[in-house]
Write a structure and sequence with these properties.
globular, about 20% helix, about 140 residues, 5-stranded parallel sheet, alpha/beta
């Protein structure tokens, strides 16, 4: 299977990449090339920025896309739209960005989700690697 991982060299993406390679999948990584660029020398690496330069993704086809680094809804939407006709499946994974009050022990799928207004999300600056702090009420 041909898999495109958006991110892929840190946090969750790194483990997904390792797992996919161990299972014999053909992996392509798309990221800024700044975090652990020496990892995975055997894979194709495309360099760009989710905040504005997706040109490296304008060609190519994949069976699956795994998106692990879409902090702002707009960048997820842009990537998904660009890849829609060239990817069999698009999975967006959000971890800490989902649940409110992560300090609480025993969080499961019934825990309240955090809320962030689109205007707060858009205030994120280019190159930021963590989402802004969420509050529990939508604006």
């Amino acid at each position: 299977m041909k898999i495109l991982i958006l991110g892929g060299t840190r946090f969750l993406g790194r483990f997904l990449t390792e797992s996919a390679l161990k299972r014999g999948h053909e992996v392509t990584l798309f990221n800024r090339g700044k975090e652990n660029p020496e990892l995975f020398p055997e894979v194709e690496k495309l360099t760009g920025d989710r905040g504005g330069d997706l040109s490296e993704l304008e060609e190519g086809e994949w069976d699956a896309v795994i998106d692990t680094c879409g902090f702002v809804p707009r960048v997820v939407r842009e990537s998904a739209k660009l890849l829609a006709d060239r990817a069999g499946h698009y999975t967006f994974i959000s971890s800490a960005s989902v649940y409110d009050e992560l300090e609480s022990p025993g969080i499961d799928e019934h825990h309240p989700v955090g809320q962030m207004s689109l205007s707060d999300a858009e205030e994120m600056t280019k190159g930021m690697t963590n989402p802004p702090v969420m509050n529990t009420t939508a604006n």
